[in-house]
Amino acid sequence: MSATPTEVMYALIDGVTGKKWDDLPPLYAEDTVVEHPMNTPRATVLRGREALRRHFDSARDMPMDMSAHNIVVHQTTDPETVIGEFEYHVRPHGENTKEFVVRNIYVLTVRDGLILRSRDYADHLAFAVGMDRLTPLVEALQRA
């Protein structure tokens, strides 16, 4: 039996916080579409499992550890779609080790245990501030 949308949501959050980068692409359908509407300096869209694999490969060297807190998964009128609200508590590596919080909402559409579509609303500005990356972000925004 395939995993339910709620189970997939928890597996996704666990995979990201646990840095289980190789376990994440198999959660997605081959033709998945993942949107990051709040990404900065501009929104991004990833199409296909291979794009997700590259995305997660690029995360391997993130200089931080994360844990998920206050996870709430909402059911919708579409049995394939769930909405997850949660917070990442982020602990940077290096000189700046002050923990910070990033609020997230994931909207997943899951069929046969695989993510067909995901809209990931993360507070990327909080990431930039918490990781002391605000100046490079402002410069990127000025160029955009």
From TrEMBL:
Keywords: Isomerase
SUPFAM superfamilies: NTF2-like
Record InterPro entries: NTF2-like_dom_sf, SnoaL-like
GO molecular function: isomerase activity
Domain SnoaL-like, residue spans: 11-117
Domain of life: Bacteria
Pfam families given in the database record: SnoaL_2
Protein name as annotated: Ketosteroid isomerase-like protein
Record lineage: Bacteria, Bacillati, Actinomycetota, Actinomycetes, Pseudonocardiales
